[in-house]
Amino acid sequence: MKFAPTELPGVARVSLDRFVDARGFFARLHCPEEFAAAGLPFAPLQTSLSRNDAAFTLRGLHFQAPPHAEAKLVRVVRGAAFDVVVDLRRDSPTYKGWIAATLSAENGEALLIPAGCAHGFLTLEDSTDVLYQIDRMHVPGQARGLRYDDPAIGVVWPAAPRVIAPADLAWPGLAE
Q1: Is 62 a known active-site residue?
Q2: For the chain, which terminus, N or C, has the lower number of CB atoms within 10 Å?
């Protein structure tokens, strides 16, 4: 695996080392030793899948409330998505900053998202599946979120969402 830092501390792009032959390729999606050697210790305890039927489905911006905040490794395993991370760590020099990356099954890239950051995505293709590896067990009732279009954050999405859950539309802005 290859690790590349982003503008947000602790957020890294993770690229696959593909071992290619006539059958296709083989690649590790996670190796605790490689993450630790890159200065990014991450040990997932659960794995989840988000299936999205339609292009331009928006999910987010989500996070878990402290002390149940989660670190996540997010990867698209089918289709493509515009993936966004927002820094909500008040002591961070990039507080309220955001980054985005296009993750796809084709490019095989992932984002490592530390605890204290919100995450969301907009699918770019029909039938997009997003795989989450998460470092904590889910604690019901601790889900939080922010409006995807909050002007205090200013995410520039590549298109308007066509499908969005009422719960995601109901999240407050950062000022609230």
Answers
A1: yes
A2: C
